[in-house]
Amino acid sequence: MEYHIYCDESDKKGKHFSNFYGAALVKGPDKEDIEHTLRMVFQENNLFNELKWQKVTENYLSKYLAVMDKFFDLIVKNKVKIRILFTQNGYSPVGLTDQHKEDEFFILYYQLIKHSFGLQYCNDKDGPIYLRLYFDLLPETKEKCDIFKNYVHQLQDTPSFKEKNIIIKRDYISEVDSKKHVIMQCLDILLGAMVFRLNDKHKEIPPGKHRRGKRTIAKEKLYKHIYNRICQIKPRFNIGISTGRDSDSDTWNGPYRHWRFISRDYEIDETMFKGNKKNKL
User: Fold this and answer.
1) Could you tell me the CA-to-CA distances from 274 to 190, 196, 199, 247, 278 in Å, in that order?
2) Number of structural domains, the chain?
3) Which of 110, 144, 165, 187 has a C-alpha 20 to 30 A away from that of 135?
């Protein structure tokens, strides 16, 4: 069996939440059908350019709604698994070295790949599981990106991956242009919606204005539609915390999950939580 994982990242620093990462996993045999299904809805809505959260407008809202409805149809059927990772500013890690801080972007990406899908539960057969990973173009130097990819490749040698015969060949890890990958474009919209709501961007009013802009209102409508689709999978879903589980294998079986990453050693900064009047970021 082969799995394909598409990875993207969003806001590094937000008002309440930061370090947003997203991943979408599909089975190799399903990949072509999934891409065809999504391309068809793109074509039906005359969407010929790349879809991105930042491009959502009032005029294009109905088209984006149609695309995300189709994407969630696939998620509900467990044809696509989604994982979202983020940190909350009120939980501040302590004891980090300068190297840890410099490498934070890649360290969190590594955690997303290693843990968020519960891959140690993906193989109950004797045969190997091959992983192909596609990263949206990484915003770092080639040297740092190569080091990161080597670490991801070496995941196959960790006990939990080795026990389940999970193989990540070095040439199965690549950076890609999201314009050419419809699954990644849908992931970008989904990730952007979470950043938008968790960091209260739906409340923003342009300087010199007295009410929200049309684009902000359109984005809020798209977010609410996405949230309603999530709640069809898991009622009363709380987007700001880690998704609960009834068993460890839920990390693999669940079609849609969030992970609020909190460092093992941290201190709480009450001023950084939502609702605190001292939080003026």
Assistant:
1) 22, 14, 9, 30, 10
2) 1
3) 165
